[in-house]
Amino acid sequence: MNSTERELLQLIEKNGRLETGTIAKLMGITEDETKQILVKLEKEKVILGYSAIIDWTKGTEDGAVTAMIDVKVTPKRGVGFDKVAERIYRFPEVKAVYLMSGVYDLSVSIEGKTMAEVGRFVSEKLSTIDSVISTTTHFILKKYKHDGLVFSDNDEDKRIVVSP
Amino acid sequence: MITEPTSKYLSNTVQSIQPSGIRRFFDLASSMENVISLGVGEPDFVTPWNVIEASYHSLEQGYTAYTANAGLFELRKEISRYMKRRFGVTYNAEDEMVVTVGASQAIDIALRAVLNPGEEVIVVEPSFVSYAPTVTLAGGVPVPVNTYSEDDFKLQPEQIEAAITDKTKVLMLCSPNNPTGTVLSKGDLERIAEVVEKHDLLVISDEIYAELTYDEPYTSFPAVKNMRDRTILISGFSKAFAMTGWRLGFACGPKAILQAMLKIHQYTMMCAPTMAQHAALEALVNGQRDVVKMKESYRQRRSLVIHALEEMGLSCHVPGGAFYVFPSIEKTGLSSEEFAEQLLMKEQVAVVPGSVFGESGEGHVRCSYATSVQKLEEAMRRIDRFLQTL
């Protein structure tokens, strides 16, 4: 990855909705070049997708429940943790799966409509997988910051209008 | 001029100074709604959290008393390391440095320490609005030397020579410059240094924007051959670390001068705010990564604004530093003040008329690009629309 590509990625990581015209001007390259780089990075799966960060607690009655589950597993010979991880991340309700260092192996993030729904998934799907030894479920009570964004940030400009 | 009866108590010096032309624009812009301001001379970032947190911690620990007059010794040691690391100049933390209330106070005590009544100070214009009045308040006489857009607002050594009289003592430099954003290269500075040496001048080098340069590696004036001992270096935390409201700057220079400045500082200021000094210490030790990040963002926005001005047909040199562009508005036929006022009234965009920065700023306006990309794009659209109506 060259420095132009890295700069572009850093810009859209902060704001995925930046228009290519704006990106081009910020970086001092042409709009065509910008598009070419984007297509290339999408093709190479460096850019996997574009999403929005949403505060679902605002303006919606049907809130969601998120849980983070510490999972201990027995790794499979030859494929290590990857096969078990795949068994887990294929479920659509699983939002994220990470292999961790420390006292447990996989960190699984799950979203459901209710606590009962998440509970059902853990007891019926997750803990019944062959290699899973144990699970510890933590429900998220409140989100303060997610992907670098503070949920209740006051980002108004506090500077005086004109200064020397 | 004030004509109330009590004005008879005012000193002649203070009465001779005009209030800054920026003030009028501030009042005008503050009274309006939906204004996008490109008139702000400070970063749009909030101070990095680790710096704020370090200041909290110092308060919790009860560091609420005075510090040494020259500033916390720990901080001065860090400043000394920082100057060496970043700019290749060495200053002794013990006696060649004073921590001040912003770079502004450092400029004030520097001028007061060296000027006798009537001695002349060359001020390179367009310049920061405080230089000339501060010279006057220190009993000196400011002598403006103009720079021009044809030279990308770079100071030409011949012009210094032309302005020198037997009363000339000090040359004030500011690179990167506010309002033009111009950066003097190593070669430019070496040519200026020759004149400085030939005429035995002292230089006050305001390098508050030194961290914010985008094209070439920065050269600090005291790093130029033979210049260290005839330079008072002024810098601070406001611009690079987004700490304007903390009011913390510093001056470095030869011992005899710095000790004289310290004398004024100890009698008139005592010391810079303690909590701000603790914050600055953290900024120097752990802040460089944030400086790089903020600088990168300014560089991108510079590119955006230069591009937009080009598209509108406003000619503008590409400024190497700070966060200002200084386009020419001469083709509109308006004075810089008329341009700024009409733009504000018609399109609610605030820029600063170049004339407030000195005679040679006329025909230009200062636009700060330290504001969000979204606002910058909207401001550029509005300026474009304004130009169409002329």
Automatic annotation (TrEMBL), chain A:
<feature type="domain" description="HTH asnC-type">
    <location>
        <begin position="1"/>
        <end position="61"/>
    </location>
</feature>
<dbReference type="Pfam" id="PF01037">
    <property type="entry name" value="AsnC_trans_reg"/>
</dbReference>
<dbReference type="InterPro" id="IPR050684">
    <property type="entry name" value="HTH-Siroheme_Decarb"/>
</dbReference>
<dbReference type="InterPro" id="IPR036388">
    <property type="entry name" value="WH-like_DNA-bd_sf"/>
</dbReference>
<dbReference type="InterPro" id="IPR011008">
    <property type="entry name" value="Dimeric_a/b-barrel"/>
</dbReference>
<dbReference type="InterPro" id="IPR019887">
    <property type="entry name" value="Tscrpt_reg_AsnC/Lrp_C"/>
</dbReference>
<dbReference type="InterPro" id="IPR000485">
    <property type="entry name" value="AsnC-type_HTH_dom"/>
</dbReference>
<keyword id="KW-0805">Transcription regulation</keyword>
<protein>
    <submittedName>
        <fullName>Lrp/AsnC family transcriptional regulator</fullName>
    </submittedName>
</protein>
<keyword id="KW-0238">DNA-binding</keyword>
<keyword id="KW-0804">Transcription</keyword>
<dbReference type="InterPro" id="IPR019888">
    <property type="entry name" value="Tscrpt_reg_AsnC-like"/>
</dbReference>
<dbReference type="InterPro" id="IPR036390">
    <property type="entry name" value="WH_DNA-bd_sf"/>
</dbReference>
Automatic annotation (TrEMBL), chain B:
<dbReference type="Pfam" id="PF00155">
    <property type="entry name" value="Aminotran_1_2"/>
</dbReference>
<protein>
    <recommendedName>
        <fullName>Aminotransferase</fullName>
        <ecNumber>2.6.1.-</ecNumber>
    </recommendedName>
</protein>
<keyword id="KW-0663">Pyridoxal phosphate</keyword>
<dbReference type="InterPro" id="IPR015421">
    <property type="entry name" value="PyrdxlP-dep_Trfase_major"/>
</dbReference>
<dbReference type="InterPro" id="IPR004839">
    <property type="entry name" value="Aminotransferase_I/II_large"/>
</dbReference>
<keyword id="KW-0032">Aminotransferase</keyword>
<comment type="similarity">
    <text>Belongs to the class-I pyridoxal-phosphate-dependent aminotransferase family.</text>
</comment>
<dbReference type="InterPro" id="IPR015424">
    <property type="entry name" value="PyrdxlP-dep_Trfase"/>
</dbReference>
<keyword id="KW-0808">Transferase</keyword>
<dbReference type="InterPro" id="IPR004838">
    <property type="entry name" value="NHTrfase_class1_PyrdxlP-BS"/>
</dbReference>
<dbReference type="InterPro" id="IPR015422">
    <property type="entry name" value="PyrdxlP-dep_Trfase_small"/>
</dbReference>
<feature type="domain" description="Aminotransferase class I/classII large">
    <location>
        <begin position="34"/>
        <end position="383"/>
    </location>
</feature>
<dbReference type="InterPro" id="IPR050596">
    <property type="entry name" value="AspAT/PAT-like"/>
</dbReference>
<dbReference type="GO" id="GO:0008483">
    <property type="term" value="F:transaminase activity"/>
</dbReference>
